[in-house]
Amino acid sequence: MRSCLTGTFLFERGKRMDKIQQVQEEALQAINGASNLQDLEQLRITYLGKKGSVQALMQEMKSLPKEEKPAFGQKVNVLKQLVTDAFDQKQVELSSGAIHAQLEAEKIDITLSGRKKEIGTIHPLYLVQQELEDLFLGMGYKIAEGPEVELDYYNFELANIPHDHPARDMQDTFYIDPNTLLRTHTTAMQMRELEKAKGQLPIKLICPGKVYRRDDDDATHSHQFMQCEGLVVGEKITLADLKGTLTYMANAMFGEGRTVRFRPSYFPFTEPSVEVDVSCPFCNGKGCSVCKGSGWIEILGAGMVHPHVLEMNGFDPEKCSGFAFGVGLERVAMLKYGIDDIRNFYTNDMRFLKMFNRFD
Ligand code: PHE
After folding, report:
1. How far, in Å, from the CA of 326 to the mean position of ligand 1?
2. Which of 24, 25, 86, 208 has its CA 20 to 30 A from that of 169?
């Protein structure tokens, strides 16, 4: 009986020891075979975690006969140490592998030549606009803006061009509806500013912007182009002020020594009205192919603000007067940079635009 009991006991103990051995083999094999850090972490939980196999063996020890506990405990401790060491070693191995893989993937070939970033250029029309803005800001003018889709009222009515006025034929207009149009001149902005001022003096501003006219496009015409309007209203403003201002502008835009001349003209919103010519900057007024032998180049329309326009906008023409001018930016840019076809400004040919690259 006794020997039989001893036999069972030995048998059970052997089984328990085998189990430890089995967990050990299984854990070490799995840990050594882990191929990434996530899998390894999973194995740590399985074997070394609170509910893991090693902990389960520890629990089992509590129910063992006293004499068996030391040997069993020792073996489990050895197991725990072995598994922990294997885990630590594998972790170091996989982490350095991961770092290498990352370094490999993010490798930068510093011998590769860099890719040049394309930097945009400033459009020649905008160069001219900026130059004019700087010039007039320096003389104390402000810069006004207005809508390109404009009311007939500002484009024509307030500019002294009523519906039946023959001057409406001077400018072929893109109408959106009977009262709305694409502005045909920057004078529309001038009218808005006059109205806004509510009779308050002085007014000193320029308004650059796009304008539209129903024109057939060719080397010198475009259905869309740019103008810059100038307007000064105050006490005792005269044609001499206009001439002085435009002479200053011509010198700044086309070089020192330029003179301007006025030729009588007609605009409904100015009285008197003038066409303004600048002495040719290419031949200094002697006559060349650019100025067609005349020594003069026409660059803008101008005049003294019509008394009726002042009146309509709430100014007393007895007490104040003003001058206005409108210059075409394409015309200025073509002269300044020697461009012979207005369409160059709108076709966005990079070879053309790059000629104005100020950053190269
Ligand atoms: N608005 C005129 C045009 O487009 C130019 C101009 C402006 C003339 C101001 C006189 C005064 O042709």
Report:
1. 5
2. 208
